[in-house]
């Protein structure tokens, strides 16, 4: 399985791609799609084109996006929501399933604590992907999202299958 994790942002949209084979996770690539200072529509188009290129080049088989939280600034939240729409649209256009995870869920899976800070997340991503070079903090977050999805994908359905076996349904 090849997972792309996407960290939404209007200026900097982080992406990280990992391969998953059993319990082994291997780094494939990471980066940041950047938008210029044009109109909102132009910036969204730039992000769409760049993320489309990333998916075309790396060919993930599934994707995951961080859920947006509400800021104090309503206008900023709306703009982030529009960038997040690009993060959901591009993988869907490529025929990928798109999972969504809350920031605390991602941190809990990667670090073990739901309220970990950015340094702790970076440290744990670096520990699980030794020798990695990060393009930037948004790429670190995107790799953490990909790792969270890899973890959830490994275990999804296993609990239900175990319960069904225990109840003699399988």
Residues in helix, %: 40-55%
Mean pLDDT: 89
Gyration radius, to the nearest Å? 17 Å
Describe the largest sheet.
5 strands, mixed
Unreliable residue stretches: none
Q: SSE order in H/E notation? A: EEEHEHEHHHH
How far is the N terminus from the C terminus?
A: 26 Å
Describe this structure in words.
With 170 residues, the protein is α/β, with parallel strands linked by helices. Helix content is 51%, strand content 21%. It contains 6 helices and 5 strands. The chain has a 5-stranded mixed beta sheet with strand order 3-2-1-4-5. Helix 1 runs parallel beside helix 2 and helix 4 (118-128) crosses helix 5 (137-155). The radius of gyration is 17 Å and the shape is globular. The model has no long low-confidence stretch (mean pLDDT 89).
Q: How would you sum up this structure in a few lines?
A:
With 170 residues, this protein is of the alpha/beta class. It has helices at residues 40-58, 74-93, 103-110, 118-128, 137-155, 158-166, and strands at residues 2-7, 12-21, 24-34, 62-66, 98-101.
Keywords:
170 residues, alpha/beta, five-stranded mixed sheet, 5 strands, 21% strand
List the helices and strands and how they pair.
Layout: E1 2-7, E2 12-21, E3 24-34, H1 40-58, E4 62-66, H2 74-93, E5 98-101, H3 103-110, H4 118-128, H5 137-155, H6 158-166
Parallel strand pairs: 1-4, 4-5
Antiparallel strand pairs: 1-2, 2-3
Helix pairs in contact: 1-2, 3-5, 4-5
